[in-house]
Amino acid sequence: MAEKVVVGMSGGVDSSVAALLLKRAGYDVVGVTMQIWQEETKETAAEQGGCCGFGAAEDARRVAEVLDIPHYVMNFRREFREHVMDYFVAEYLAGRTPNPCIACNRRVKWEAMLHRSLEIGADYIATGHYAGIVKLKDGRYAVRNAVTAKKDQTYALYSLTQEQLARTMMPVGAYTKEQIRQLAAEAGLPVANKPDSQEICFIPDNDYAAFIDREAGERVPKPGNFVTKDGEVLGRHLGITHYTVGQRKGLNLAMGRPVFVTEIRPGTDEVVIGEAEDVFGDVLYCDRINYMGMADLPEPREVTAKIRYAHAGERCLIEKAGEDQIRVTFKKPVRAITPGQAVVFYEDDYVLGGGTIM
User: Fold this and answer.
1) Which helix (H) or strand (E) holds 278?
2) Is residue 52 annotated as a catalytic residue, yes or no?
3) Which of these is catalytic: 51, 52, 104, 286?
4) Which of 80, 121, 153, 198, by CA, is between 20 and 30 Å from 102?
């Protein structure tokens, strides 16, 4: 009897081809689309778009028809609201810049969907992420780089647990995007040329501040001062949720030269402004550690670390700095170390672990 795999189908070409590849490999494939949009009407949900809106579910259903596999919609509204949307707002209100995709991967796409899939008799879940999974010599599982660095998504997967990885397949990571589209076209999948989603799924207009204003209500930070690191007032800002470390555009400060956000101080509602060189740093601390390709960090270790999705990575020394804290010292200064973002550690072509920048 074939092993059953539940494929998270977002309606995009990548997850559609993941289902195609697994069916061709002989698995009993079931397609599932996560219902995470918060509104009830089809019209409103369709406007929201993103990877899991009503239109996405319809695209996934059409693909499932072509592949001749069952397709279901599972309701994860509550989990998405709590672990992604509420988290996103709370982090911005605290002066940090969150990564909602990492939270969604850990708490919704894996924790919630895997639990529900096992309940219906699945052996594995699968996604269309550009990554792979490797079992190391010591028996631990780790996320491994995709064959194409341009699409590699390992950074957003560092927080997955050993139990989740043991039950996960990521067949797309062995292909380039061009190959995936070609496979979809050859199989007659209706999403072969569907564009990739670029925005955060619950903020399709990319206006983070407006979304936070609506969600936070009375908790929205009031306008405050732009200041230098020494406290000199340079002007007024719209509220700390409008800014992130490293930002240059949209400051509306007539300084006669480019200036950048170097720090956000939620306690005083101040946004600190500095020069280009002030945005660089060589030390960070992180917490909320998830160990993946290593079980612990008993002694200092030299690794490569990425501090954002698009960061190429930099060599550094990592060492414990307390309970659930790691100090990261870079060989060369890196730009815009941003509290709330993830720092992810790599060795060779796989993820050792990571944490949240403090």
Assistant:
1) none
2) no
3) 104
4) 121
